[in-house]
UniProtKB/TrEMBL annotation:
PANTHER family: IDURONATE 2-SULFATASE. This is Sulfatase-like hydrolase/transferase. It comes from Paraglaciecola aquimarina. Gene3D superfamilies: Alkaline Phosphatase, subunit A. InterPro entries: Alkaline_phosphatase_core_sf, Sulfatase_N. SUPFAM superfamilies: Alkaline phosphatase-like (SSF53649). It holds the Pfam family Sulfatase. Keywords: Hydrolase, Metal-binding.
Amino acid sequence: MWGKKMQGADATKPQFLHLGFHLPHTPVLPPKSFRDRFKDKTYQVPDFSEAELAKLPKQLLGIYKTSKMKGMSDDEIQQAIQDYYAFCAYGDFLIGEAVETFKQYSEKNNQEYVIIYTVGDHSWHLGEQGMEAKFGPWQQSVGNAAIVVSSDKSLLPANKVNTDLVEFVDFAPTIMAAGGVDASAPKYDYLDGVSLFDVYKQTVPKRDYVLGEINVIVGPRAYLHSQRFRFSMRTRPFSNIKLKPNQLGKDLKWALTAPAEKVEMALYDLEKDPKEQNNVAYDSQYLGLANWFRNKLGNIVLGDNRIEADWSQANSYHLSNFAVGADDKKLNIPKNLIPN
């Protein structure tokens, strides 16, 4: 639209703005004024032992090898952490400017406002798992928070914290609700998420887990996080990042039927291992639980209305629905599978 004449927003109607900040992303290049604020700080680098690698499956080892801090000097590691935080601070500054401008616009036009701060589309390792990167199923790669504020305090009171498990799919229903749309209406059944306003007010059931799937770097892998356990597994037998036309919808039950070692499971008991440093998926006392998670997660991501698309051509996709309803947000793990 550069150089074109555009009609401005109609201030008499509700406005929706989406601001996507491409930071803090690589290359990590904070402005000098922000970098200087952090250059003299010293950070404690998270504990990591190469012994952790012995129990990682091949797929997760591949992520580690592309992102490892090994080989960096202590000074280089400190600079990497300093610059990352400086870039975050610069992002906070830009977001602050945008928010203040929007609040002034709303007040000038006598309109209420709702602002949703999404803290990244992923997180970042700064030494955890021995890495400086994202890409994995660990907390540092996929754990995020959101801040929601409203000028109407009856909609959402200030200074309240909710620690329920939520997902990115919740943002669409939340935005719709803020605009007066009932996202629970039957015509929006295709939406997977729920309004965060309802989560806060506890008018919707709490989820026992959240989940997702990634395919960057080493190919398809799905993960499921609960309060106590974090589980992940390879979902497809190939390692390419983009689906090839001859792979579309093929071997979708592979991860449910292949030998356990081929599925490359990872399981962390956060009650005993909060930093996710000991993969117990193949330990004898946890193997039954790992296979239970494998069946639960595999049915959800592979058979509960999974869509696979061949992006090289229009309208080329495959729908898999051999396990419709598997994503019920309940775990109900058999007690005999959970080690004392």
